[in-house]
Amino acid sequence: MITMRQLYDRGRPGQSIVDYLVDSVADGPGAQPAAAYGSSRYYTDGGTPPGRWVGTGIAGLGDDPTENNPMPAKLKPGDIVSAEQLRALVEKGRDPLTEKPLGRAFPKHLTAQERADILRRELPKNLTEQEREARERQIDRSTSKAAAARAVHAFDHTFAPPKSVSVLWALGDQGIREQVEAAHHEAIAKTVQVMEADTIRTRIGAGGVSQELTIGMVAAAFDHWDSRAGDPHLHTHLVIANRVQAAEDGKWRTLDSNGALFPSIVALSEAYDNYLMDSLSARLGVSFSARTLSRTGRTQYQIDGISNELIEEFSQRHAAIDAAREQEDGDASGHWDADRKAWADTRMAKEHRPLSQLTEDWRRRAVEVAGPDPLRGVVGRPRQVPGTPAGWPGMLPPAARSGDVTDQRIEEMADHVVNVLQGSRPSWSDWNIRAEAERTLRFIRCATPADRDALRARLCEAATAKCVRIDRVDRAHTPARWRRPDGTSRFEREHSALWVTQDLLDAEDYLLRASQAAGAPAIPGARAAVAAWRSQDGKQLLPDQAAAVAKVLSSTHPVDVLIGPAGSGKTTAMAALADTWQAHYGQVVGLATSAAAADVLGQSLGIETANTAQWLVAQQHGAAPLRAGQLVIVDEASMAATLPLAEIVSRASSAGARVLLVGDPDQLGAVQAGGAFGMITRHHDNPATLTAVHRFADAWQAQASLLLRAGDASVLRAYDEHGCVTSGEREEVIEGVYRAWRDDVDAGIDSIMIAADNNTVSELNERARADLKAAGKVGGREVVLHDKTHGSAGDRIVTRRNAHHLGVGNHRVHNGAAWDVVAARTDGSLLVTPAGDPSAQAISLPAAYVAADVELGYATTVHRSQGRTVDRAHAIVDSTLTRQGLYVAMTRARGANLAHVVVDDPQPDTADIHDVGSSTPTDALAVMAEILRRDGADRTARESAAEANERANTVRQLANEYDTITSGDGGHVRDDKRWDQRLPRVIPQAQHEQLRKDPHYEALLELMQARDGGQFDLGDLVPALLAEAPLDPDRPVQDLADRIIANTPMSEETGGGTYIAGLIQPGWARTPDAQRALNERADRINARAAHVLATALRERQPWTRALGVPPNDPRRRAAWLQAATAVAAYRDLYGITDGTLDDSPHMDPLGVRPISGEQETKFQANRRQIATWRLAEARRIADEATRPDTDPAPTPDQRPEM
C-alpha cells in the first residue's frame, strides 16, 4: 500500500523534514543504496542505506552546459542523496547542486492572531459599536479559516508491502531477501513511471487555472526495514519535492496536488500492490489469496503459507503493553499510573539496530509461533507453462498476458466494478474506477507490468462504458493554445470525469419527484391533534416540535422530511407523530440503517422496527406487506443509501402508504451511495424543521452547536473559552483522552471516547480494559475476541453482526449493540446483559460468535457514535474529520463535549516518521477551522453534475481563464508598456531583486499595469514612493502596493475604460481563436455577476443592505445596478460568503482584506479598490434617490464605465 502525507518545515532544530530520514543512515565508505543488504555493511552494522535520487525531473537540476562549462555536475536516478542536498531541495526549495532557487521561495504565513491584529488595527475609527462587533466577527471567521495555511515543502509517499511480504523478507535467507527487495523496488519504479505519466502535473496562469505537463518528479527514496516496535516492516519513503519543471516553458513551479496527486493516491496504492505481487510470484514462486486479519478486520491479500498468527506476532505493540503493565503492577503510585507508564514505555524511540540482530530476533520469535521451519512450502512453487495441461496440486497457474482474459470475463468483472462503485458512493471518478479495477484484478498474476497495464485498461474501458458521465460542462470556447493534444481543455483536470449508473440517476429522480408529489394520506385537523398529545409522563410538545409535527401530519407528499439538529428532540417529535398517526390510520413502521438504531427507535416509539436491509429482504419475500394509510418512518435518514431508499418509497407508494425521512443533512451520511435525504431537503420549499436544541445542560452549547453545524469557525473561540479544547501530538492526545475518560469512570459519569479511526478505537479499548483489570473491576476467566483482545466479567463489549435469533424479548443481538459481560465460560462463550441494565435477563453469546463478531466497547468511532447520548464525551479530533464528523463528535453529551485536537500529526501508517511535521496546523483552533471547511456531505449524482457546471461558470473560474488567455496571447498592453519590463529600469537593482523574490510579485505588476496612465505616471511615482522609506523586508510587495493604492485613488476618470462586470479590465488577443474565447468569457462573466446579484436581492442576503435600496427611477436604477453588479462580481471572484447567511447587516460586503502571505492575490489589490469605489457609488445613488430635490443619475451611456 501507499500512504501519503504533506510535509512542511517545523522550524525546530533536529525536527526538520530531513532529520528523521538522514539520521538513520549509516555513513562512511561502505554506504550505498539498498541493492543487496546481505553483502553490505547494513547487515552487521546499525543504520539504514542512504537515500537515492528518483524521477526524470532530476535531469533539470544543476547548471546547463555552457562553453566554459560543457559538462556541469548533474544527477541521475540512483545517485546517493546527501543530507545537504536534501535540505537544499526540500527545506529551502533550491537546486541541490547549485543552491539556486527553484521558482518562488516558500511563502511565510502569518498566524491567525497576527492576521487578526493587523486587520483590527485597520478598522475605521468611526464605526458604531454594532458595526465594529460585526467586523471583528468577520475578521475572526476569516482568519480562523486561513490559519491552517502552511507552505507544503514535499510529499512523503510511503510504499509498504503487505505484512506477509515483510515477514517473508525478515525470515528468508539472503537470496530471498534480495529477491523481495528487488520486487519491492521494481514495483516502486513502475508506480513512479505511472505517476510521471498521469499525476505529476503543475498549474499555471491566474489562480493556477491551467493544468500542465511536467518534466517529471524530483524525489528521494529511503529504504527502512523495521517499525518503531522492532517488528519487520520493509518500506520505502519516497519524498517528492514540491517543485517541478513545466514541460512547456521550463519554469519551476509547485505540484498540482489537489488536481492530480491527491485524487490518484488510492489507485496508485492498489497498482503498487499488484505490481509487487506479480514480481514476487515470478521471482520466488509464491502465491497470494485474500484473508481477513482478526486484528484489523480488513480483507487483504497475503502470501499463502504465512499464517495469520505469524503476521500478528509481528504486529506486537499490544502484547508489549501487557508485558510492560505486568512489570509495573507493584508500583506504589497506583494502578492508573502504572498503566500510563506501561503505555508510554511501549512508544519507544526507534532504535537503529543492525539487520543481523533484527533477523536473528525475528527468526527466534517466528519459531516460537510457527515451529522450526516457518517458511516451509511458502516459496519455490513451480508455475505451469502456458498451453500445457494443468500440473500437480500446488502448481501455480501460468502468468497471464492481457489477451488471455476473454472479453466475456472482462464484461463480468466490469459489472462487478460498477456494482461496487454504485454501492459505495453517489458518483465516481476515473481514479475510482481505476482503483476498483486494480482490486478486482488482484487475483490474476500477470506476466509483465505491461500486461497488467493493458488488462487494467481493458477493464476500465469496459466499466466506463456501463456508466453515464454527468459532468459535461457548458464551457466557453478554449483556444488551441490551451488545449491538450487530445483536444480536451487544460482548464479541466485530467481524469476528473464524474460517472454514475442510470439506475442511480433514475432512483434520485424518482425520490425527488415523490417528495414533490401530492395525494398521500394526511391527518385533518393536525394542529389540534398535536396540541392534545401528551407523552407517557404527561409532557406536551414544545412550540417548534408541535409546528414541525403538525406540518408533517397535514402534508400530502408521498415522501416528506423532518429535519432535526443534534439534541433538538427528534425522538419526542417522532413519538408524538407516531401516536397521532396510529390513532387515525393504524400501524407505523420504523426503519433505520443499523439494527442497533432500529432497536432504539422501537423502544423509544413503541412501534415495530427493523433495519432497512432486513426489512427489504422481508418485503421481497412477501412478509408483512404494507397497506394503505400506513406510515413508514426512516430514522437517521442521512445515513440511508439512495437505491434502498428508492425501493422503500416505491413499495410504500404502491401500497398507498407514506414515508417520512427523519434526520439531519448536516450529520454523517451513508457509507454507501447516499445524499438523497440532503437532496430532498434542499429541494423542499418549506421542510418541517426542529429549531430549538434541548440536549445540553449549558445554554451556550445549544447555540454553539448550531453554529458548528453551519461550519461557522468563529464559534470555535467559544468552545476554547469554555475549556472544551485541548491539543497535543497524537500520543499526547490519546493519553489525555484516556485519562479524562478514566476520571469520569471513577466519578460514576456516563462517558464515551470517540475517535475517527478503528485503530485508535482499538488502542483505547485495550488500554481501558487493562486499567479496569488492574483495578479489579474486570477479571476472572478470559475469552479471545475477534480482534485478539480479551473479554471477561465486568467488560463492556459491542456486538458487530446481527444475530436476531440470540436474545430475549426486546433485547436482540445486533450490529452496534453494547453489552456488559456477566461471565466468561470455559467454551469461549459469554453471558451478557444490555449495557447499563444489570437487572435484565442475561443472554448467551456462543463462542463462535464471540471469536468472530465481538469487540471491546469503551471507545467508538464517530460514525458509530451518531445517535448516542451520554453525560460527557471526549473526541479525538484530527485532520481526517469532516465538518459533519466534528459536529457529531461534539454533540454527543448532555454535559461537556470536549475536543482533544491532534496537531503536528504523524499518521498511523507512517508513524515511524515521529516528530516530523505534516500539513496539519500546530494551532488547535486552526485544525478545527480547517475541518469545518471540509464539507463531507454526500451530493447526489444530479447535484454533483450541477455543481461541476456551476464551478466552471463562476466569475472566479471565468476571470482566471480570461486573464490567463489574455496574458498568454498578447496581454493587456503593448510590450513597451509592460511593467515586468519597465520596473527594472526605473528602480535600483537591489530593490527590484527584493520585490522579485516576493511570491506576490506578479500581483504587483498587474496592479501597476492597471493604475498606470491617465493622471498617474507610475514611472515617476514609484521611485518617489520607494525613496520615502525602506520597504518592509517581510512583505515588500504588499508594502509598495499599499503605497501605490494610497496615492492613486480610483475615480470615474481613472477607471481605465469599460470594465467587464464593472470590475475586470478587458484584454485583447492576437488571434481570432483567442479573441473568441475572451468574448465568450466576458459575456459569461457579465451574466454570472448579474445572476449573483439578482439571487442575493431575491433572497435578501444581508450583505446587499450595504448597497442601499435599489432606486425606482429607471435611469438611477440602471446606474445602481451597474455599480452593484461589480460588488457581486467581486464577491463571486474571491469566493466571499460573509453576509450570505449571517444576519448582521454591518459586515463588509467585500469580506476581509487579504494580507500578504494569506493567499495568492493576482489582480486582487486593484480589483478590491475598484469594488470599494463601486460599493460607495451604489450607496450614493441609492441615497440620492431618497432625496426628491436631486436629479436622476445619468444613464450608463452618458458616463464612463468602470
TrEMBL record:
Pfam families: AAA_30, TrwC
Superkingdom of this protein's organism: Bacteria
Composition-biased stretches (Basic and acidic residues): 123-143, 1179-1190
Region span, Disordered: 123-144, 373-398, 1179-1202
Occurrences of domain TrwC relaxase (ranges): 19-368
Biased composition (Pro residues): 1191-1202
InterPro entries: Coronavir_polyprotein_1ab, P-loop_NTPase, TrwC
PANTHER family: DNA2/NAM7 HELICASE FAMILY MEMBER (PTHR43788)
Protein name: Conjugal transfer protein TraA
Originating organism: Actinomyces succiniciruminis
Lineage of producing organism: Bacteria, Bacillati, Actinomycetota, Actinomycetes, Actinomycetales
